[in-house]
Structures are given as C-alpha cells and as structure tokens.
Specification:
The complex is a heterodimer of chains A (166) and B (538).
Chain A (H helix, E strand, L loop, with lengths): L1 E10 L4 H11 L3 E9 L5 E10 L1 H13 L3 E6 L5 E12 L5 H10 L3 E6 L2 E8 L1 H10 L5 E6 L3 E4 L10
Antiparallel strand pairs in A: 1-3, 1-4, 2-3, 5-7, 5-8, 5-9, 6-7
Chain B lengths: L2 H11 L4 E5 L5 H6 L6 E4 L3 H15 L3 E5 L3 H5 L1 H9 L4 E7 L15 H4 L6 E4 L6 H12 L6 E7 H5 L24 H13 L3 E5 L1 H5 L3 H11 L3 E3 L14 E4 L6 H9 L2 E5 L19 E6 L13 E4 L2 H10 L7 H13 L13 H11 L5 E4 L3 H9 L6 E3 L10 H11 L5 E6 H7 L2 H7 L5 E6 L4 H10 L15 H8 L3 E4 L5 H10 L4 E6 L8
Parallel strand pairs in B: 1-2, 1-3, 3-4, 4-6, 5-6, 7-8, 7-10, 8-9, 10-11, 11-12, 13-14, 13-15, 15-16, 16-18, 17-18
Helix pairs in contact in B: 1-7, 3-5, 3-17, 11-13, 15-16, 15-22
Classes of the chains: A alpha+beta (166), B alpha/beta (538).
C-alpha cells in the first residue's frame, strides 16, 4: 500500500465534490482525506485528495478522476517537490494545574491557544502531518475532548508544475 | 418561446428524428411543444424500454438516441436502461421532467433526485435551473454523449424551467467545455512502435471490441487485417466487426466464446486489443494475455488501458483515427504459418452438440435463421441462454448484432429492436429472446402495433429461466430454485390479442419452411420455438 497526494483542478460547479467522492466510493478506492476550496480563478476549485492503494489502483484513480467531465487537471503532488500543510484544532481538558504544561508544549510547537475556558483549552496548529502526530503524541497524557483535522492541502514548489487556467 | 420550445429547437438542431418516452405532469410542457415539431414521438409502455429503444436507434444511426420521461417514478424507471447504455458505451440523451424548482428537496409528489441517483451510470448529468442555460446544456449534452468514450447524459428539467420564457434563443455552434477534451488521434510514436512490433511478430492477432463499432472503424479494421493477413477475434460487443464467415475471423473470445478464439488469443505473440475493456467475461485471466506477448491496447478511454491488464504499448485514441493511421504505414509481415495453425484449431476445436431431436435445436435454428436473414439485417439478442446461443451461432454478414453485453439486461431485445427498426425502416430487424426475457418486455408489443414498427420476434421457449437453471445444475448440483416459468401466457393467444401473426415450431422438421415464411412476412411476427428445457450452452 502506498499513499499519494493528488491535486485536482475542477470546474466550480454544484455537485462536483459529490461526483468525485462518489467515484471513489463506487470503485472502492480509499480516501484518507479530501479538502476543497476556491482558487485564484473563481471558475475553478482546487481539491486535494490523499489516497492509498497499490500502484495499479493509484494509477486508476488518476485516470478515472481525469475522466470526469468537470475535472480539468489532476496531478500527483510528490512529497519532495511539494509543500503540505494540515490544520488541526484540539480541545484538551485542562485544569488550572495542568494548564502550564500544555501551554509549554504548545509554545514549543509554535501552536496557538485560541480558546481558554475554566477546564479546557482549544489549541490550533498548522503543520505537516508528522509535526501534528508528534504534537498529539506529547499531549497523550491529557484528555483530548474534541479534535478536528482539515486533511492535507498542498502546492507544488516553484513554477514548473503550475496549472494555468486560460 | 419557453424552455420546452427551446429544448425541442435544440433537438431539431441536433437532427433528432425520434423521441421515446412516457409522459407525466412534469414533462408535459415538453410533450406539448413537441407537437409543433416534425420529431416523431413513440409512446413506450414502460420507461426502461424508452432508454433501450433509444439505445437500439443509436447503435444503428451512430447518433445519440433520445428519450424523455417524467419526474419521480418515470425517471427512476429509466435508470436500468441508462445503466445498460452506460455499460456498453451507447450514446443517449435522456431528458427527465422534474418538480417545480421551489419544491426541489421538499419530498414533493413525484420528486426524485434523479441526477443523484443516476450519477454512477451517466457520463454527465445536468439539473437545469435557469431557462437560459438550455441551449448550451443541450449542445454540451449531445457532444459529451457522442464523443470520446460514448455514453448516456441526463438532463433534468424542472417544470417551471420548461415553462419559463427564454430571453434569446440561439443554439451554439460550438461547444465550449473548459475541462473535457477527449483524445481522438493516436500518438504517432506509439503507432510506429505498433507497426514495428507487427513487423517482428510471428503470431499477431487483433481482438476487436464494441469500441470499433462505436467509432465506425469496422471497415478500416477489416481492410487493415485483409491487407496484412492478420487474424481477428472479437468480444461479445465486437460481434459484427468482422463478418462471421470471413476467412480471417476466428470467433468470439471469453468464457462463453469459442475455445479456438481463446486459444488463438492466448498463443499469439502480439495482441492488439481495440475498443475492449478486457473485463471478466471476455478475459477471465488477464495474465494469459499479458505473459510472453506484446499487448497493444487501443482505447479512446485512457482509464481502460491498464485497468484489467497491463499493456506493453498503450495507445489512446479513437479506433477509426488509429486504424486510418495504421493503413498509411507500409510493412511486411508473414503470418501464413500462424493463420494455418488457427484454421486447424477452428476445425479441430469446433464444439459438437448433441441436440435432442424432440425439440428445436437453438444452435441449428439460430444459424439457419441468421443465414437466411438479409445481408444488412439487424439481429438483436436478449440475455440468457438465448444470448449465448446467438453469440455462438448467429451469422453476421454486413449487418449488425446488438445485445446488452456489459449489464446483461433481460428484456433488452424487443425495445432495442424497435429503436433499430425506427432508425432504419428499410432493414430487416429480428429480436431473439427467451420466454423469460420476452415477458420482461412483452408490453412493448402494443408500442410496435401502435407505431407500426415491424419487428420480428423469436421466442426460444423452455418454460424456465435457462441460464440460471444451467448454473444451478452445475453449481448447486441440480438444486433448482426460482427458475420455473409456469403461468406464462400462451403466446399464440397473446399474439392474437395484439393482432400480431404467430407461428410455432416444435422441432427441426419444418424449420426451413417456417423461417422462410417468418422472414418473408411483411410486418411483425412472433415465432415461438420449443426448445429442450435441459439444453445447455456450455
């Protein structure tokens, strides 16, 4: 099993996301995460999909997705040629005594505390998946009440792999 | 001009001659406007068959077939027909009425989310929310349906959009799709590579799929094969690419195909697969067609290449364009020895049947029937044992062989034959079905009569669901379940009720005479052949 990050440029029409996710579910492809949002050109959306599978499956994913009428472009974002980020928000139970140690870890990771309540904190952190995993590992001594992750989004480095929209 | 008028204008601009359908309130504006047009309307008896009939027409005309049904159950009924067309890449434009835009999502009467429901069986779908979008949506729909890998497109039109006034109607001359651009022309380097391999090959073979017929490349393929003496086999959907009796043709491959066709494909050193999806029915073990040989896979859909078998030389493009390019190349190949071997296989591996003399032998009957049919006749096979016998024994000359290959949808033959006949009234059209599949579409006898569509129907009657019975015989050791068709109508009486002439054949004795009368008869006729309920296709 391998993991690949695909970047799609799709027509910003209603239903495009359901067409893409429907394709994954009916063909039995595994999605680890999917993120979607606008691009500089309002006619298009950028969709980032992290998928797992063997080589044949990953090749089929690329071909089947590019077949969708709404999809303009799909390409793999290779880890060595791309930057990836994910945003995570974590609500941790934190009494007055626990608070300082959590704040300390948060500072080290350059994460941010975005909400403080009498018995909990909400921490926001952006980073690579490795960094997020490491951060969560350090929080394991604390009770995580709620957690929200956006899934990976990314861009290729430099100007070589830019998809131009005429 | 309202939205419905605009849709009709678009259909006229696309050269649509016939619309198959069934009305309901939500599609009434459409069927009101169509009265002002020369487009012929055919009232089908259940919506599924509207799509099948449109499919039959499309497969003869080469243009998208059109059906129009109402919202809710009308739309959901048509899904099986759409899925059948999708599986065989048949171009359709299916228009569905929809509830008022304000009621969308409220579970209104006869509301169904048809664009959502049909998502996995269409090439594309539209829900029209603004009447002014109609011209470009219609243009796109026809273009998408009939280009690249063909397939059905659905357009869902709420009743208020059909009734709304359109500001300015102008049918676009060109399609502007930012994201959809199918590759037609094959890569020149890859084409050269194929020719080089053909030069080296000792045992080349072409396996023709339905894509060859869809791109109308059969003449080019025949010419190329003839010119270089390359043998050809076909998949079920590729039947008819080569005339059955062509000396270079070695039959249908697959688990229901000819043993010598499979052997030819497996023993080849260069296999040119064209317009075929290499799915389980044609190639049960993809290893066999990739090991120890060069596999050239030609398809207009890049996703087909490498889906089930890894190709040595992938070649994306339209079969016709590619074979035209092949024809321009000159090369010398000597495959005489290989051809001799295959001819030997064809004789020595031919299947021998032991028909029960008390009944009509479906194999001998189908072979005699199709031999007697006209040069350009259209043979439509249904699904079940009848399909396998038809594939194995029907002789196609310059005509067409139609069947539901991908989905295997029972009841396909009668509506598809109607569509074929409407598309080509001058051609002889024969539907061959079993008594199970016949009963799935027999309501269309009324449509045939009402619209004077002359279709000849063969019913191979064994009072059982033969294909399943045969499967249970071997897989479940004769533990039969749900295969007895007792209670079926007397077809003679049924034919009389519809005022359709009828004949019955009990055994082989009068076969020639009966077939002659059947084919010579002007108009529709039903011929029932009593076959052995225990007969098998394997």
């Amino acid at each position: 099993m391998q993991k690949k990050v695909f970047q799609l440029i799709a027509d910003n029409t209603s239903g495009v996301l359901s067409r893409i996710s429907g394709l994954f579910s009916r063909r039995g492809y595994n999605i680890e995460s999917i993120t979607a949002g606008g691009t500089a050109d309002p006619r298009y959306s950028r969709i980032t999909i992290v998928a797992t599978g063997d080589d044949e499956v990953l090749e089929q994913i690329e071909k089947q997705v590019s077949k969708l009428v709404d999809v303009k472009d799909i390409k793999e974002l290779r880890p060595d040629e791309s930057v990836f980020r994910e945003l995570v928000m974590i609500k941790v139970r934190a009494s007055a005594e626990e608070r300082p140690s959590i704040v300390a870890i948060t500072d080290i990771f350059r994460a941010k505390i975005v909400d403080v309540s009498p018995d909990s904190l909400v921490i926001e952190m952006t980073g690579t998946q490795n960094k997020i995993e490491a951060f969560m590992g350090l929080l394991s001594g604390h009770e995580i009440l709620e957690l929200a992750r956006t899934g990976i989004t990314g861009l290729s480095r430099g100007t070589e792999n830019v998809t131009y929209m005429e | 001009m309202n939205g419905a008028d605009a849709i009709i204008k678009c259909l006229e601009a696309e050269g649509v001659k016939n619309v198959y359908g069934y009305p309901g309130v939500a599609i009434c504006p459409f069927y009101n406007s169509i009265l002002e047009s020369d487009i012929r309307t055919i009232l089908i008896r259940t919506e599924q068959n509207a799509a099948h009939a449109a499919s039959g027409e499309a497969r003869i005309s080469g243009r998208p077939g059109v059906c129009a049904v109402t919202s809710g159950p009308g739309a959901t009924n048509v899904i099986t027909g759409i899925a059948t067309a999708f599986a065989d890449s048949i171009p359709l434009v299916c228009i569905t009425g929809q509830v008022h835009t304000d009621l969308l999502g409220t579970d209104a009467f006869q509301e169904a989310d048809i664009t959502g429901a049909v998502e996995s069986f269409v090439k594309y779908s539209y829900l029209v929310k603004d009447v002014n979008d109609i011209p470009h949506i219609m243009k796109e729909a026809f273009y998408i349906a009939n280009s690249g890998r063909k397939g059905p497109v659905l357009i869902d039109v709420p009743i208020d959009v059909q009734n709304a006034t359109i500001n300015k109607f102008k049918y676009p001359e060109e399609v502007k799709l930012r994201t959809y651009k199918p590759t037609m022309k094959g890569n020149a380097l890859q084409i050269k590579k194929v020719i080089k391999e053909l030069e080296k090959a000792k045992k080349p073979i072409i396996c023709a799929g339905g894509g060859v017929l869809l791109s109308d490349a059969q003449e080019n393929l025949r010419h190329f094969a003839q010119e270089h003496q390359i043998p050809v086999v076909s998949t079920m959907m590729g039947l008819g690419v080569m005339p059955t009796k062509h000396p270079l043709y070695f039959g249908m491959v697959g688990n229901n195909g000819k043993a010598y066709a499979n052997r030819a494909m497996n023993e080849s050193d260069l296999l040119i697969m064209v317009g075929a999806s290499v799915a389980d029915r044609a190639v049960s073990q993809p290893d066999l067609i990739t090991k120890g040989k060069i596999l050239v896979h030609i398809d207009v859909d890049p996703a087909e290449i490498g889906k089930n078998a890894g190709a040595t030389i992938p070649l994306v493009g339209d079969a016709k364009c590619i074979f035209e390019d092949f024809e321009k190349e000159s090369f010398e190949g000597n495959y005489a020895e290989w051809l001799e071997t295959l001819k030997e296989y064809r004789v020595s591996m031919a299947k021998k049947r032991n028909p029960n003399p008390a009944y009509v032998d479906p194999a001998a009957f189908i072979s005699a029937l199709s031999e007697k049919m006209e040069e350009d006749a259209v043979y439509v096979a249904d699904v079940g044992q009848n399909q396998i016998w038809s594939c194995s024994y029907a002789v196609t000359k310059q005509g067409k062989f139609l069947t539901s290959g991908g989905m295997g949808t029972m009841g396909y033959s009668i509506p598809a034959a109607m569509g074929a006949k409407i598309a080509a009234p001058e051609r002889q059209v024969v539907a061959v079905c079993g008594d199970g599949s016949f009963q799935m579409s027999m309501m269309e006898l009324a449509t045939m009569q009402q619209h004077h569509v002359d279709v000849k129907i063969i019913v191979l009657k064994n009072n059982s669901l033969g294909m399943v019975r045969e499967y249970q015989q071997f897989t479940y050791k004769e533990h039969y379940s749900m295969i007895d068709l007792s209670g079926s109508p007397d077809l003679e009486k049924l034919s009389a009720a519809y005022d359709i002439p009828f004949q019955r054949l009990y055994n082989m004795e009068k076969m020639d005479e009966v077939i002659d009368t059947f084919l010579a008869h002007k108009g529709s006729m039903i011929l029932e052949c009593i076959i052995d309920p225990m007969d098998i296709v394997r």
